[in-house]
Amino acid sequence: MSSTFYGFEIAKTGLRYNQKALDVTAHNIANVETEGYSRQRIESSSIDPYVTQTLVAPLTNALVGGGVRIDYIQQIRNQFLDRQYRNEASLMGEWTVKAEALNYIEKLFQEPSDIGVMSVIDRFFVGLQELASNVGSKDVSTNFLQQAITLTDTINYYASQLNQIQDEQDYAFTTSVKQVNEYIDKILAYNKSIARYELGGNVANDLRDKRNVLLDKLSEYANITYTETKVGNELRLTVSMTYFDENGDRQELVLIDHDQASKLELYTKPGSDYHYIRVDGVELDNLESGKLKGYLEIRDGNTDDVKGIQYYKDKLDYFAKSLVTGINEIHRKGWTIPQGGASSMTGIDFFDPDGTDAMSIKVNQEILKDVFKIAASDAEVVGSINSGNNKIILELIELREQAAIGGSDNFEAYMSSYIAELGIDTAYANTMRDNEDALLDSIVEQRMSISGVSIDEEMANMVKFEKSYQAAARILTALDEMLDVLINRVGLVGR
């Protein structure tokens, strides 16, 4: 037969199991609002019958196990959802950066509006039309000059704001690189702590949760890959970031190898004040995704495939250069109205010939000092009371409808296309961001359904484990009563 106290040992395992299960339940409930916490549960198995039980079993035909064994406390996570979340978080980070910058630029141009570039261009040519009807009028000439100044100031303002936004993107980029390096340091520290904790066979669930939060955050800045491999008794985590090399091939660069790390290094290139990154000498100009990629592309993108701030700066510069070139070529042919006994002059530029980009475009100082230096006539003007003809002004007005930019667009059509293109690119970035946001929400919901703490479920578990504990305790009581009968009552009959 089995040991007299064998049942006590079985009941004790039940008490220990349910007590530990209640502890785990309490831990889950306490961390219901903790960021990144994954609910835990006890994994158990039955204890095999003891050897003595096995030997006597053929005689009694009643082989009984030894109760329940607590194997480990499991962290409830879905590795596939973790990887999916981090892949999408990287894309979300990239498109959030791009959408925010493009939305700001779109608001900057304020189209359509009374102070937008389209209205300013229109008023410039309307001023020319008024001047064509009033050649020699100082008031009309002054009004037109003011419209020209407004046009150049507006273009200067847009260029200045684009430069400022570009600088802000560079600052955000450098700040993000520092943040990534902080995450690398923290993940490295957790790797070491987890290795020490798990050396004795324990599982560092809470430390792993904190490390997973950092991996989630790191994935917002760059697309990462990671593996955990067993080396001896240790599980070693390796984290890499992905990029494309000069041939367009996808590569992985190790950032963390268990207890060793390679950090991102900021540097500048010749001829540029902006920052770039490299790791162990490898320049990372073409990242796969993430906020870092977003900042680089929105700051530097200047192609039809990658349209960033530089792309729109270049197009605005081209507009300014075309405007200066087109107006000056015609204006230089004209003759000024002589003043104060001076002779009529020709060959004067309307815009400063040195200001051939959006940041530097401005009206010629000679005209700013004397509005009669506006050359309206195509022939020399003789005499102080003669204002000449208006053929140069009419030619300038005709320029409004000519394909003065690249041989395909007039000034207004070019800027209208510029604004429309910006709107399309902004809408696309917003759509991509919103799509990623919706996808991330779906993944988060799936993650929470698996890893999140449900108060209702934990309360049900608490009642279940409490009742099981009471049942195990009741078995002890029943066994105690049986022993009391055996010890104190058996053999007393007939005394």
Poorly predicted tracts of residues: none
Main sheet specs = 4 strands, antiparallel
Distance between the termini: 29 Å
Radius of gyration: 39 Å
Shape: rod-shaped
Mean pLDDT: 91
Count the helices. How many? 12
Question: Could you give the order of strands across the largest sheet?
Answer: 3-4-5-6
Give the SSE string: HEHEHHHHEEEEEEEHHHHHH
**Roughly how much helix do the residues carry, as a percent range?**
55-70%
The quaternary organization reads as: single chain
What's the total number of strands?
Answer: 9
What does this structure look like?
By secondary structure, the chain is an alpha+beta fold. The chain has a domain at about 5-75 and about 455-490. About 55% of the residues lie in helices and about 10% in strands. The chain has helices at about 5-30, 50-60, 80-110, 115-135, 140-200, 205-220, 290-300, 310-330, 365-370, 390-400, 410-450, 455-490, and strands at about 40-45, 70-75, 225-230, 235-245, 250-255, 260, 265-270, 275-280, 280-285. It has a four-stranded antiparallel β-sheet with strand order 3-4-5-6. It has a three-stranded antiparallel β-sheet with strand order 7-8-9, with helices on one face. The radius of gyration is 39 Å and the shape is rod-shaped. The model has no long low-confidence stretch (mean pLDDT about 90).
